[in-house]
Prior knowledge:
Chain A: Its main location: other. The complex is a heterodimer of chains A (about 100) and B (about 90). Chain A is of the alpha+beta class. Chain A contains two helices and five strands; from the N terminus they run H-E-E-H-E-E-E. With about 90 residues, chain B is of the alpha+beta class. Chain B is built from two helices and five strands; from the N terminus they run H-E-E-H-E-E-E. Chain B has helices at about 1-15, 40-55, and strands spanning about 20-25, 30-35, 65-70, 70-80, 80-90. In chain B, a hairpin with a 3-residue loop joins strand 3 (about 65-70) and strand 4. Chain B starts with a helix and ends with a strand. Strand 3 (about 65-70) of chain A pairs antiparallel with strand 3 (about 65-70) of chain B, so a sheet runs across the interface.
Amino acid sequence: MTTSPITASLDRVPDQVGYLVMTEDGAVMASSGELENDEAAAGVIMKMVDVALRLQTGTDKQEPFKRLSVIYDEHMYMVTISNQKIYVSKRTNEHHEPITV
Amino acid sequence: MEKELDKHLEETMTTHGVLGTMCADQHGMCLGAKGSVSGDSAGMVTRLSELAGQLESSSEEDPIICIESDASTLMIKKHDDITMAIHKAKVPT
Lengths: 101, 93
């Protein structure tokens, strides 16, 4: 899809292999890499955001979540909401070797 | 079994920074809850782990789900038919 100011900053996320930008009603505004045109992932993530928001209001905390992450061994999905848009970034899960001195 | 589970939940609560913990079965029924995580959230926690499984349906792995806010993180992980949630403070108290 096209590059816009919204996605320009997403392109700079380190270790990223794909991203999605969605409106609050789940419409995909932009997508790239492994998440390009991935409507199925967009649909599942929208449902997860919906449940996570309800889960938050169900607790004593009033603030919405800052980040929702789905972490696998090799990669992860990071979801955040900003300016009525849902940003999803798929990143590789880097296993850093311990520093030996 | 309930006593055993209760003991495990109690043990988890003693970990530094843990504010609450909860266990639910595959139907979203709460099996036990301690501290800040209410048993009422069992259905939503189970639903989240179920949805995370649909994200990569070809994967055998059950991912960890983290819901982060400024002050705390709720971590959810499914293991077999049991889903466990741990609510942890960002800055351990």
